[in-house]
Design brief:
302 residues, 6-stranded parallel beta sheet, alpha/beta, 10 helices, 3-stranded mixed beta sheet, 15% strand, single chain, Rossmann fold, 11 strands, 41% helix
Amino acid sequence: MEIIITGSSGFVGQHLSKYLESYHNTIQPLSLRNNGWESVVNLKAQAVIHLAGKAHDTANTSEASEYFSVNTDLTKALFDVFLKSEIKDFIFFSSVKAAADTVDDILTEDVTPNARTPYGQSKQQAENYILSHEIPPGKRVFIIRPCMIHGPGNKGNLNLLYKIVNKGIPYPLAAFDNKRSFLSIDNLNFLILEIINHNEVASGVYNFADDENLSTSELVQIIATAAGKKTKLWKIPKKIIFAISRIGDVLHLPLNSERLKKLTESYLVSNNKIKAALKINKLPLAAAEGLKRTINSFTENR
């Protein structure tokens, strides 16, 4: 089948395109940066997967308007084209941050969205626009809220942690007791293909996450093992760490308040709804194994 993908040159887009092609699908990249992109959309494709967007800037240097012009306005325009086309499925990659900036228990799809950052708010507004429209007969619309995605080639916080551990530097945030949900690119790819291939899966909002949750300290142990290093965990008092992060905000250091929050907060995401829709009990790849694959890619590319 023919599948349109926006953001196909990005980390997720590259992996997802190759995966879908391996199952005999034809991928049609669509750049929304070019004027007149509406005129080149294949209006008879099976699905459009909207990955393109402005990612969360942990350095907090981006203007708020940038998020809304890309994440909200372009999504609205693409969705309008979809509604008028013969395309059957619209899959929009939003974010768990569109639902909640922090999670006290476990994030489910029925939570009342309360985004607090321009990134999350821009995604939330795009979701609201999509959900405000009646879905035409014969079409399906999916809003995907993934948690932190990782895989070979990923350059986010996992890469930063790997560099710290690989240099033999002790992990200084072990005093923070947290649990987080992750999403391996392998499980993401699997879920998207299953949605496309199973017409009985209903339109709706779906969280994407691995089955298991891990603490950052556990993650450091996985990294150390993959890198052949001894695990070094330091429990520096939290007050000192918070003070350092505030200095990082001013001096734009690697450890700032936003990155500290990402590394130490608990953020648990339920994937029960998508598994129930697909009638599966577990995802193909365990969380720890997926993380090992990502970390091993850092080791191979040193």
